[in-house]
Amino acid sequence: MSTHAKRERLLLADLLESAGPDAPTLCENWTTRELAAHLVVRERRPDAAGGILVKPLAARLERVQAEFAARPYEELLRLIRTGPPRLSPFALKPIDEASNTVEFYVHAEDVRRAQPDWAPREPDPVFADALWSRIERMARVLGRKSPVGLVLRRPDGRTAVAHRGTPVVTVVGEPGELTLFAFGRQDAAHVELDGDKDAVARLMTAQLGV
Q: Where in the chain is the domain with CATH 3.30.1050.20?
C-alpha cells in the first residue's frame, strides 16, 4: 500500500522542527506553532475540528486550537509524528492516505516556501501522479469560488476543469504546483497562466481551496 501520507507527515514534522515555533508560514498568516496546533486538533479533536468546514463551530475550533498552541512546541511535533489515536478514522491507512497526502504536502510547502532560503524538492513522478489523481477528483470543489473559468493542466497535456465559465484561465504546471495553486497558494505556486489579463488578475486574488 502506498505510504505517501506517512512520508509527508514525517517531512512536515521535520520542517516544523527545523523552522522553530515562531517562523512564518503561507497558511492564514499562522506561525509554525499555530500550524502545528491546527494539525494536531484536526486529527485528535474531532469535536472541534468540524469548525474547519462548519462556520457555527469555528469559535470552538479557534478556542481549542489556541489551547493546543499554548502547549510546548516539542509536544505538538511529537503528536504530529505519532499520528492520530488508534480509534481515529485517520488511523486507518486508506483514510490516512486519502485525507492526508495532500493536506500534509500543502502544509509542508507552507512551511518550506515561507522561508527566505527555501529550495524546491527533487522531482518524484510517482508522488506527482498521486497528487494529480487527487486534484482531478477535487478540482470542482477547490475551484468553486473562482470568478472565471479555471482549467488545470499538466505539462503533458492532461487537464482538469476546476470551474466552468468565461473567460477561461488555464493554469499550467507540475501536479505539486497545481495543487498549491488550487489550494489558494497562487502567489507561491510555480505555474504559467494562459488567459485574458484581467481574468488572470481576478483569479490570482480569488479564494480558492476548501
A: 127-204
CA distance 41 to 37: 6
Per residue in 176-209, pLDDT (tens digit) is 999 999 999 999 999 999 999 999 999 999 999 9
CB of 194 closer than 8 Å to CB of 176: no
What distance in Å separates the CA atoms of residue 163 and residue 37, rounded to the nearest whole number? 32
d(CA 155, CA 180) in angstroms, rounded, equals 16
23/116 Cα distance (integer angstroms): 11
For residue 120, say if its preceding peptide bond is cis, omega within 30 degrees of 0. no
pTM: predicted TM-score of the whole model, two decimal places? 0.91
Other C-beta atoms within 10 Å of 95: how many? Answer: 14
**What grid cell was written down for 113?**
516556501
Residue with more model confidence, 140 or 117? 140
Outline where 45-162 has alpha helix (H). 46-49, 58-69, 73-82, 93-112, 125-142
Encode pLDDT of 148-157 as tens digits: 999 999 999 9
Return the DSSP state at 122: P
Inter-residue contact 139 to 160 (CB < 8 Å): yes
Q: What is the pLDDT of residue 50?
A: 62
pLDDT in tens, 78-89: 999 998 888 888
Topology given in CATH for the domain delimited by 127-204 = Nonspecific Lipid-transfer Protein; Chain A (3.30.1050)
